[in-house]
Amino acid sequence: MTRLNRRDLLKISSATVLTAMAPRLALAEVATEVPLHGLSAFGELKYPKDFKNFDYASPDAPKGGTFAFSPPTWLFNQSPQTFNTLNTFSAKGDAPPRMELCFSTLMTGALDEPDSIYGLVAETVTVSADRNSFVFKLRPEARFHDGSPLTAHDVVFSYQTIKDKGNPELLLLLTEMKEIVAEDEHSLRITFTGKHSDRAILDVAGSIPIFSKAWYATRDFDASTLEAPLGSGAYRVGKMAPGQSIEFERVEDYWAKDLPVQRGLNHFDRIKIEFFRDRQPEFEAFKKGDIFLRMEATAKTWVTEYNFPAIEQKRVIKREFPDEKRPQLQAWAVNQRREHFRDPRVREAIALCFDFQWTQKNLFYGMYEQSQSLFEESDFRATGKPSPEELALMEPIRDLLPESIFGEAVVQATSDGSGRDRKNLRRAVELLTEAGFKRDGNRFLDTGGKSLDLEILIQAEVFTRVYSPFVNNLQAIGINASLRLVDPAQYQLRLQDFDFDMIGIAFSLNATPTKESLQSMFSSRAATLPGSTNFPGIADPVIDALIEKVSEAHSRTQLIAIIRVLDRLLRIRRDWIPNWYSANHLVAFWDMFGFKEPKPDYGFPVETLWWFDEAKAKAIGKI
Questions:
Q1: Domains, the chain, ranges and CATH?
Q2: pTM, 2 dp
Q3: Residue 556 burial by CB count (10 A; 0-12/13-18/19+): exposed, middle or buried?
Q4: What is the pLDDT of residues 186-220, one digit of tens each?
C-alpha cells in the first residue's frame, strides 16, 4: 500500500464534501442543554421518559433457582476456559466471563434497539451545544454492595484509571476523552477532544464499569487477584473454585432492581459457570444435568449426538433461535507481525487452500454458510460494485487504493467440492511464487532459504477434525503447516502477546459500530497494544483514516457507506480470512425455564432474560 504523506491525509479527511462541510450532527440532532433520559445515535428513542420496563423484560417472572452453564470450549477465543483472577479490568490474567454482572455503568443499552442507551447510574444526561461535553446527573440511591454510596468521584476514578492502564478493549474506547470532572457528589462532566465519533458516548457511557475509589485506595488496580472487587451490579461473586467454577449470587437489595432499565431482568438467585478444558466432559455434564444449557457450535454434534435419553424423554429441548441483527466476524487472523505473512499474496494463497464446499458437505452437515465479509449478517457487508455513496468516498483517494476495490467486492474462492481443487491450489502456488518464495522439493523457501511455516493455534480438540483437511492442502502446495493444540490458559496468554501464526476468531460487533470500537480490531495503534483484538497486526494509514471517517457520519446511510468501503479494503488485503457462519443459535436446554418470545434482536443474554420455572423442573425430576 502506498505510504501516505500530509497531502494524502488531507485528501482523505475531505473525501466527501457532504461530510466535510456538514455541521457536527451528534446523536440524530438530539436536543442540547436539556436533561435526557436516554441517547440514540440515529432516530428517535424507542422508550419514552416514563417507560416502565423494556419490552423484552418479564417483570412478572418469579425470582429464584440456579442457572448453570459452561462457556463454550470451541468458540474460538470467545471465553476463557479457566480463570486465575477476578480482576476483569486489567489485561493481566484470565478473568471469568460475566463479571460485568457485578458492576454498574452510567447508562445501559436496550437489546431491541441497535443504537441507544438509557440511564442506569445516571438519571439524566445533558448534551452541550457543540456535542463535545456530556453532563451526567447521578441517582443518589446508587450504592455499592457494602452499602457505600456510588458518587461522581467513583466514576471519575474509574474512567481515568481505565484510560491510563485498563484492559485495551475498554482503554481504546476512551482514546478521545479529553477530561472527566466531578462537579459535585452527584454530577460529572465528560468532555471529548472533538475528534471523537458522535456515537462514542454510547460506547463509553454504556460499557465502562464503575468501581469504588475507596476500595482501590488500599489495593493495586493491576493486581491479578482472586479477591472479588467491590461492585454495584445485580450480582456479586459467591462460591468459587479457581479454574473450575464460579457462582454469582443475586443481590436481594440491588439498588437499581426497580428502575425501568432493570425491572423484569436478573431472575436467577444464582448463576453458576463450570469450566471444562475439553468439549466432551462438558457435553457429558450437560447430558447428566449438571449444567442446564448449551450453545452448540459443532454441526456434527448437533446433528448426530443429541440422541441421549433426556432428549428422547423430552426433558431436554433442542431448538434454534435466530442470530442477532449485528455484524458478525468469523475469520482466521494471519499474524503480519511475522515477516512471512506480510505479503497479501501469501495470505490469499492460504485462503485458497480451505475448501469450504467440501467441508460444508462432509463435516458441517450443510448447516453453515460461507462467510465473505467482516461485517456478515448486516447492512455493512459490501456486495457487488461500490454504490455512488461509496464511490464518493473512494474517488478522491483513488491513488491510495488498490484498483480492484472499484470492482466487485472480493469473495472467497469456491471449489469443485473435491476437497483438493487443483485450480485453486495451482493459483495458490502462483501467488507464493509471485511473493518471492521458491519451491525446493516439497517445501516453499524464502530468499534466505527459510521454510514457509504456518502453525495454526487451537485450544480445543474439536478443531482438529475441521482443520486437518485444510492443513493437508497447505502442505500439498509446499507450506509447512501444522496444528498446535494448547491448554486454555496458554492459548489466552499467546493471544494477548500475539504469539501465533494463525488463529480462528469469532466476534459479534456493535449493531452501530463506532470509531472507537473499530480501532481495537483494525487500527495501527491497536496492532502494538498487547491484549487488543487486532490479531492480524493491521497497520495501514488508509484504514486508520477510514476508521476516523466513521466519526463524521451523521446518518446511518453515511455510516453504511464508510464501513462498506472499509470492508472492501480489508477483504482485498486479507488481513482476516472469513470462513463460515451460522444464521442461528443452536441451543439445547433442560426444560425447566421460562422465557419470553421472540428474543430481542440485538442480544441474547439467557442468564439475565430467562427464569427458573418450578413446575417444569418438578415435571422433569429436577427438584
A1: 328-581 (3.10.105.10)
A2: 0.86
A3: middle
A4: 999 999 998 877 788 998 999 999 999 999 999 99
